[in-house]
Amino acid sequence: MSDIRLEQLTKSYGDSVAVDSVSLQIREGEFYALLGPSGCGKSTTLRMVAGFVKPTAGRIVVDGQNLTPLPPEKRDIGIVFQNYAIFPHMSVADNIAFGLKLRKKSRSEIDTAVRAALEQVGLTGFEDRFQRNLSGGQQQRVALARVLVTEPRILLLDEPLSALDKTLREEMKFWIKNLQQKLGITTIYVTHDQDEALTMSDRIGVMRAGQIEQSGTPQQIYEEPGTLFVTSFIGQSNILDVKCLEVKEHKATIELGGQVLQASTHHLIGKGTGAKLVIRPENVLMGQEAEAQGVPLLAATVLDETYQGAMLRYRLEVAGQEIVAERQNQFHLEKWDPGAVVRIGWTERRARVLPEDGAGSSSG
Amino acid sequence: MTELTASPPDSPPVSGTRPAWLTPNLWWLVIPAILFILLFFLIPVLSLFASSFDKAMPGQITFQGNFSWDNYERIFTRSLYYTAIWRSVWIGAAVAAVCLVIGYPLAFIIARSLRPGIATLITILVLCSMQLDMVIRLYGLMVLMGDKGLINNGLIALGIISEPLPLMYNWVGVIVGLVQVTLPFMILSLIGSIRSINPALEEAARSLGSSRWHVMRTITWPLSLPGIYAGTLLVFALAISSYVVPALMGGWKVITLPIHIYQQIAEVGRWQFGAAVAAILFLTSLCAMALYIVALRRNAGGRV
């Protein structure tokens, strides 16, 4: 059980910077996800923590101990790889015993520990199997058992679910999260899958171009995205061009299609400058629903409707810009045909104003 | 185009199998190779082996059908030939071992080098040595290793030795020559098998607490065994059957089976007896390899 501190961790290859001065604090027992598109530096960051990549600058501190100069075998960090990396020439039991043998445990201690580890991951009786006779999910469990049996200070998971099929992925998502909570082990989880990050993590760091763009709880990341990149990377969003009239105490007054609206913001945006209004499709209210909320209303034209089972998805045009609204598909709710004009609106705190990409500064 | 239309247009290609149009009726493409092997390899070799059962008649080349065990009796009643069999086998084994020991680190570096450019460069250097004719390379070795060669002259000039070291015309010279000739084969078969090891396996072992050397011993080496087997078998087969190297580097003083074969056929003209020695060489090589494979299978737990 350990806390991790990354201090201005940097890795550059020649002129290109893979990880750019990442500073991060992860609490004891926390499940922290590094989320980002491929090439954003999340894997390099993880590999620096594991000790496979030597940082160009910066430090990795675990429990106050500087790990940076130590080789991987001296770090006491467990890592599970995307392809699981089960040793193909060893049985499952030998795979799990690998780390224990290096820790000079007695034969009987090892046997007991291996059995307990297999039971923990639900693979009792698999001792003598080999990697070629294991499914992806089973290999995943063996890889976890092999790491956890050595009781590492930190668990690193490098896209552990991406090689599994969808059903198994859903199952393993919750299984891994439960196991992590039960053991209370500090975990860094690297993924490009927002669903995994949102459902499993205590906190998420969204990475882009070697930097952590935003770090926060899944709720903060989803509901209060700090940048346009985070907005568009996590979930779906409508991003509309607006003009910013005034910003005061985290409230922005904006103009969209001649209408003056209010929205929340964490940024300082200059008066009269262009800005982006961000709103999730499920937060766009239509018709009576919008009127009942007493929010400012805008006239929109329905472009088309897509049936998605539980949801109906409307593509609308408002003030010359496209906006998508998602609504529960329930019989008592109004429906609109393409071409219809409908009043839409949203509550103030569901709409956020962000500066144009690269402009503006955060005020927390 | 018939092959193309043969597969239903809407059946999706099964991943991992060859496209349907490649599989049917293409076996005839191997006919030239089969004909070549039949005509220029199997027929001459089989007729040579057949003639080993003929009565020895100097000058007679073709198969006569005078069946006799004479040639084989002669081989097995003279200690000369037992010595040659043993000498061929141990020299072959020694060459394979030396090639493995000096080839493995190089192959590892090529297989694991981060920059593909460097790997390609070293591989080209390895292959370069094969571009030059073997005889020329061996004469080069003589310049280096002879009694008045660079090594001996240098050591004498430095006052380290007073008499030249016997580097040539003995087993030392033969082994050095054979290693020089066969090393590229060893390296090439090792590169492939080391490269096919997922680096994550080595990393996983490292982070479980294993040092560099321990990883090499417990992960990399055992997983490259297929390449090690292929390389050692290949080098052994090349070494045990080599005639030119023992002839030039051994100066007719290291008499291996191929030297006997040459003497019988080219010098005495006794084709039938030479053919019998060749058959013995072939069987010796097969037996040695079979023993090796059986021994390794037992250790490898069914991985080769």
UniProtKB/TrEMBL annotation, chain A:
Gene Ontology CC terms: ATP-binding cassette (ABC) transporter complex
Q: Which UniProt keywords apply?
A: ATP-binding, Cell membrane, Membrane, Nucleotide-binding, Translocase, Transport
Catalysis performed (reactions)? ATP + H2O + polyamine-[polyamine-binding protein]Side 1 = ADP + phosphate + polyamineSide 2 + [polyamine-binding protein]Side 1
Q: What is the enzyme's class at the highest EC level?
A: translocase
Q: In the record, what terms sit under GO molecular function?
A: ABC-type polyamine transporter activity; ATP binding; ATP hydrolysis activity
Q: Record's PROSITE patterns?
A: ABC_TRANSPORTER_1 (PS00211), ABC_TRANSPORTER_2 (PS50893)
GO BP terms: namely:
quaternary ammonium group transport
Q: What does this protein do?
A: Part of the ABC transporter complex PotABCD involved in spermidine/putrescine import. Responsible for energy coupling to the transport system.
Under PANTHER family, the record lists:
SPERMIDINE/PUTRESCINE IMPORT ATP-BINDING PROTEIN POTA, SPERMIDINE_PUTRESCINE IMPORT ATP-BINDING PROTEIN POTA
UniProt similarity note: Belongs to the ABC transporter superfamily. Spermidine/putrescine importer (TC 3.A.1.11.1) family.
Q: Mind telling me what this protein is named?
A: Spermidine/putrescine import ATP-binding protein PotA
Q: Which gene encodes it?
A: potA
TrEMBL record, chain B:
Q: Which PROSITE patterns match?
A: ABC_TM1
- List each copy of the ABC transmembrane type-1 domain by range: 85-292
* Annotated source species: Roseibium marinum
What's the protein's topology in the membrane?
Multi-pass membrane protein
PANTHER family listed in its UniProt record: ABC TRANSPORTER PERMEASE PROTEIN, INNER MEMBRANE ABC TRANSPORTER PERMEASE PROTEIN YDCU-RELATED-RELATED
State which residue ranges cross the membrane. Answer: 26-50, 88-111, 117-138, 175-198, 219-244, 273-295
Q: Which Pfam families match?
A: BPD_transp_1
* Coiled-coil positions: none
> What name does the UniProt record give this protein?
Putative spermidine/putrescine transport system permease protein
